[in-house]
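Marked as duplicate of an earlier ticket. Keeping the data here for the record.
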Amino acid sequence: EKRPEQGEVIAVGPGKMRDDGTVSPLSVKVGDKILFKKYSPEEVKMDDVTYLVLGESDVLAVIEA
């Protein structure tokens, strides 16, 4: 099965929790077109739509903001 290696960010979390309790903001935002590691995303299916969920560390580049 061929898996995509790029996509559009449709949602983001609040950021990464640091050891001191502060939140580090994400480097991607909704609407960004990104490249990501091919086999890192988890697939989640909701209402017959398959979404790919991945961590920020799996994003290789933002190709269009």
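See parent ticket for discussion. The longest strand covers residues 59-64.
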